[in-house]
Amino acid sequence: MTDPLLLIDTADGVRTIRVNRPDKLNALNAATLDALDVAFADAAADAAVRVVVLTGSGPKAFVAGADIAEMNALTPVQGRDFSLRGTRMMRRVETLPKPVIAMVNGFALGGGLELAMCCHLRIAADSAKVGQPEINLGLIPGFGGTQRLLRLCGRAATLELCLTGAPISAERALQLGIVNRVVPAADLEAETMRLATQLAAAAPLALRGMLDCVNIGGECGIGEGLEYESAQFGLVFSTDDMREGTAAFLEKRKPAFNGR
Ligand code: COA
User: Fold this and answer.
1) Distance 81 CA to ligand 1 centre (A)
2) Are residues 149 and 231 in the same domain?
């Protein structure tokens, strides 16, 4: 029996999804793209899941890119379909109505960095390396790398990473705003789970409202974005959790949010 492409478990509202091809540094072949698409759809639909943590199996890699062996044989039409397949899955991650944290435990290259950039937060081990090395293969990024890097860290860094293909350290990625935090590799899991547990205890509908504001507001002008935020702000007044959160503050106790 072959290993499953993903290892998935859930504890205390935190679902961990681990890409599981460590012998290929967790490279994304078509079957893994599809498995991730299903896993994220399932996480979105499962009310017991409050937060998702995405990572890679083994000591070396988060994800070392799209599967080069599989891409080598593709025709142009198949290449386009492969890109669309990855892009659709990653858009699902980006627009998931609950927080997704990338736990970057090693190489996040090419499709690996593209996947990490779709997550809402990124915590990297100090040993991790990130980059868009497609130029070394005569390729360009095909799962949104040029677009998401541009929006995360601007033109200069995007062009440097994409045109040179050179990987950068986690520390440099932090300076550029590509990752949120860098922690010693030995502390990565504990630090990530601490953050995930904190978010799992927060009011889910308020988290969702903020994710929607950033995702939708990020695609429109400031006026429309502010209108959208006001509408979402009004909407949270319909939730039990907003009444509970404000009441708990006034009563000087910890709130207990129920997701309604
Ligand atoms: N696609 C397919 N297989 C990959 C892969 C990828 N993106 N990245 C690594 N692998 C495979 C290697 O072919 C090797 O398989 P093998 O043992 O059957 O030969 C295995 O994973 C281990 O990789 P290896 O290169 O031996 O590890 P390393 O520690 O020497 O180097 C990297 C690590 C990340 C520097 C190197 O694997 C690499 O450059 N990978 C490609 C990165 C890339 O270009 N990504 C963008 C793709 S669009």
Assistant:
1) 23
2) no
- Identify whether residues 232 and 158 lie together within a single domain: no
Pocket of ligand 1 (CB under 6 A): 24-25, 27, 64-69, 107, 109-111, 133-134, 137, 139
- Give yes or no: residues 118 and 209 share one domain: no
Listed in order, strand segments (DSSP E) in 35-89 are: 51-56, 61-63
What element of type H or E holds 33?
A: helix 30-45
Q: What span, in angstroms and rounded, lies between the C-alpha atoms of 209 and 212? A: 5
Residue 3, pLDDT > 70, answer: no
CA 156 – CA 178 distance, rounded (Å): 13
Ligand 1 centroid to Cα of residue 31, in Å, is 18
The tens digit of pLDDT for each residue in 13-61 reads 999 999 999 999 999 999 999 999 999 999 999 999 999 999 999 999 9
Let me know whether 181 and 222 are in one domain: no
pLDDT digits (tens, 9 = 90+) for 60-108: 999 999 999 999 999 999 999 999 999 999 999 999 999 999 999 999 9
Which residue, by CA, sits nearest to atom 27 of ligand 1? 25
**Residues 50, 172 share a domain:** yes
Domain count, the chain: 2
CATH of the domain at 86: 3.90.226.10
pLDDT at 2: 55
Provide the annotated active-site residues.
114, 134
Reading the block at residue 158, the tokens are 């995007």
- Give the range of the structural domain holding residue 240, as residue numbers without chain letter: 204-250
Residues 6+ away with beta carbon under 8 Å from 157? 149, 176, 178
